[in-house]
UniProtKB/TrEMBL annotation:
One of its GO terms (biological process) is isopentenyl diphosphate biosynthetic process, mevalonate pathway. This is Mevalonate kinase. The keyword Hydrolase does not apply. Residues 84-153 form the GHMP kinase N-terminal domain. Residues 253-303 form the GHMP kinase C-terminal domain. InterPro entries: GHMP_kinase_C_dom (IPR013750), GHMP_kinase_C_sf (IPR036554), GHMP_kinase_N_dom (IPR006204), HddA/FKP (IPR001174), Mev_gal_kin (IPR006205), Ribosomal_Su5_D2-typ_SF (IPR020568), Ribsml_uS5_D2-typ_fold_subgr (IPR014721). One of its GO terms (cellular component) is cytosol. GO terms for molecular function: ATP binding; mevalonate kinase activity. The keyword Isomerase does not apply. Keywords: ATP-binding, Cytoplasm, Kinase, Lipid biosynthesis, Lipid metabolism, Magnesium, Nucleotide-binding, Transferase. It comes from Chryseobacterium koreense CCUG 49689. Pathway: Isoprenoid biosynthesis; isopentenyl diphosphate biosynthesis via mevalonate pathway; isopentenyl diphosphate from (R)-mevalonate: step 1/3.
Amino acid sequence: MTNPLFYAKILLFGEYGIIEDSQGLTLPYSFYKGTLKFSNLENDFEKKSNSSLQKYADYLKNLPVSEKFQLDISTFQKDIEKGLFFDSNIPQGYGVGSSGALVAAIFEKYSVNKLQPETISKDELKDLKKVFGEMESFFHGKSSGIDPLICYMNLPILIENKENVDKVSIPQSAEGKGAIFLIDSGMTGETGPMVQIFFEKMKTEGFRKTLKEEFIRYNNACIDAFLKKEMNPLFRNLKNLSIWAYEHFKPMIPESINNIWKKGLDTNAYYLKLCGSGGGGYILGFTKDYQKAEKMLEGFNKEVIYRF
């Protein structure tokens, strides 16, 4: 049996807001994927991956995990000695869940009680998210567990609040003029420092107030409109969200993107938002007319992820 593939993820809505209990909406993204494999560790990529897995196994060994979600660490360690590595084309530091896919792959292969993602209940999702959060904290210092959960489930997930998540069906992608797309900022971003900036900002009352009263309101309204396929309210709230981020998330917007972010707001041809924690990696774009937006964004690498 070949090892299953674990796809990247895209957080469409909810970056930073989910830390403060906003809703989030996230989708698997099959363009990037990873899987556990064995090899003779002849090249640097495989060697590096194998030695990271060794460190990770030591970390997992000391994690208190409930009986239901136990991992067979000794088999994992034996496999690492046999040349196990994570073969992945998911770019790191791009906000598309490289560590999430790795955590999901390890959980799938080494969990003692095998789960069927299709039959997992809402309560089990909640417990699993906690376990994944502890497992992924090795990579980010603190993790909500959302990324590995999406990679593991391979389904769109609605984050209702800090505690609860649920499986959700999103409108089928159609071949319309509109699109949601990714723009490559040309640089990697590190989650840790960006999250640190966010927490610094949260110390000021004015920022906390505008986050709760404006950002979270626009964010949740976008999710609601997107799931209902109501494009006018979606774009109205997207513009507000994009303006808000341009004003309050300046440090998270890569310099290469600054001008085109503003250009989108000035022309209403497209709106940009962060994809993940920002600082680099991908930026998300939304437009009602992709052809027009594409011309305006010439020179940037773009990938369409959803049509409408």
